[in-house]
Structures are given as C-alpha cells and as structure tokens.
Specification:
Elements lengths: L7 H21 L11 H7 L7 H10 L4 H17 L7 H10 L9
C-alpha cells in the first residue's frame, strides 16, 4: 500500500503552499520571490531568530571548513525546509538536514 501523504498531488500542494509562504514573507522583507532570490541580509531576516540556529550553523561550517557562500547556501536550504514544514522559524534540525542535502556527510550534533 502506498502512503497517501506522499502522493504527487499532496506534495505538489505542499510545494505551492511553501512558495506562497516564501513570496508573502519575502515581499514583507522588500524582496518578493523565492528564497533563492534573497540577498544576505534579507535571508538572515527570513531565518530569524538566528541565535537559536547559529551554534549548529557554526559547528557545520567549522567541521567542514566552509566559508560565507556555504553559510548562505545552508541558510537558503534550511529556510526552504522550514517553509515546506509550514514553520515560521528555522530549527537546528533544518540546518542539519540542509547540510546532508548539500552533501556534507559528517554532521555536527545538536
């Protein structure tokens, strides 16, 4: 038996809802469009409060010897994962999942 929560229709609706959520939030930040179009400051504002996720982010960056561009990429993916989960805040688990999706196998622990 197939899992109905993973059907194409359900996933398409989730993606549409996440895009609408991004568009609305990003418009309020003065940069309408998807998370991929946000500049650094707007991205940090969209991921606020950063204090909750900064230690995990720094651990990932340090562990893999990553720089500023990787930081931005991780934040973009984590913000999108939070949008897909219908959350206003980015959680440390979103960052860990983003790191895994970006190809960083050894992850920092929360």
């Amino acid at each position: 038996p197939r899992d109905a929560s993973l059907s194409t229709e359900v996933l398409a609706a989730k993606i549409q809802a996440a895009r609408a959520r991004q568009s609305q939030r990003n418009r309020a930040l003065g940069q309408p469009g998807p998370n991929s179009a946000l500049d650094g400051r707007a991205l940090e504002a969209a991921c606020a409060p950063l204090a909750q996720i900064e230690p995990v982010l720094q651990d990932i960056l340090r562990l893999h010897r990553l720089g500023g561009r990787a930081r931005v990429r991780l934040l973009r993916v984590a913000r999108t994962l939070a949008d897909l989960s219908e959350r206003d805040t980015v959680l440390p688990d979103d960052l860990l999942e983003a790191a895994a999706l970006r190809g960083y196998a050894r992850l920092a622990t929360v």
